[in-house]
Amino acid sequence: MTVGKAHPSSTHIYKLPVGIGSQDLNRVTQEKDLGVLVDSNLNFESHILCKVKTCNRITGLIKRNFKNIDFQRLLLLYKSMIRSHLEYAQTVWSPFRAKLIEEVEQVQKRATKILPGLRQLSCTHRLQMLQLPTLVYRRAMKMI
Fold first, then answer.
1. Which of 1, 56, 88, 144 is deepest in the core (most CB within 10 A)?
2. What is the pLDDT at residue 45?
3. DSSP label at 40?
4. E strands of the chain, at which residues?
5. Parent domain of 15
6. Residue 103: its pLDDT value, please?
7. 64/87 same-domain check
8. Other Cβ atoms within 10 Å of 1 Cβ, number
């Protein structure tokens, strides 16, 4: 993988010595390292969308399997099963484009709607009731 603004049509072939000869290495555009999907442009969009998809699946799992859930149990499940995915290695992949920031925030908005008594409230009121900061705020505090 060539990282940066190098010419995408780069024809340089990397070789790995194997025994007496050598083997050509395949060129890739993205690779997962320590759980973070890194692409050649270092924009992490594919990683963020993958994490959002995973968290939405977990949110659906919680919603289907916990019909009568209270505040404490939802907070425990959210913090351990959803937010942990959204915060792992976030200093590396933290979104900077508005579209991706909204995608990540939408996960928390959806998760806080699980409680029947909070569905009709606005997102800010739900977060205040659950005493949760926005994910943008949490990322900003970790950067300080």
1. 56
2. 92
3. T
4. 15-18, 21-24, 30-33, 36-39
5. 1-40
6. 93
7. yes
8. 13
Please report the pLDDT score of residue 61 as a whole number.
95
Q: Return the residue matching tokens 């915060």.
A: 87
* DSSP single-letter state for residue 60: H
Interhelix angle 123-130/98-112, rounded to 10 degrees, is: 60
Q: Give, as one character, the DSSP assignment of residue 5.
A: S
Buried b vs exposed e over 81-102: b needs ≥16 C-beta within 10 Å? ebbeebbeebeebbbeeeebbe
Task: Retrieve residue 36's tokens.
Answer: 């973070």
| 70 in Cβ contact with 16 (< 8 Å) | no
In the chain (144 residues long), the average pLDDT of successive 10-residue segments reads: 67 81 85 90 90 96 90 92 90 88 92 86 88 85 72
Q: Are residues 36 and 50 in the same domain?
A: no
DSSP labels for 113-129?
Answer: T-SGGGTTS-HHHHHHH
Buried b (16+ CB within 10 A) or exposed e, 2-15: eeeeeeeeeeeeee
Cα 58 to Cα 89: distance, rounded to the nearest angstrom: 19
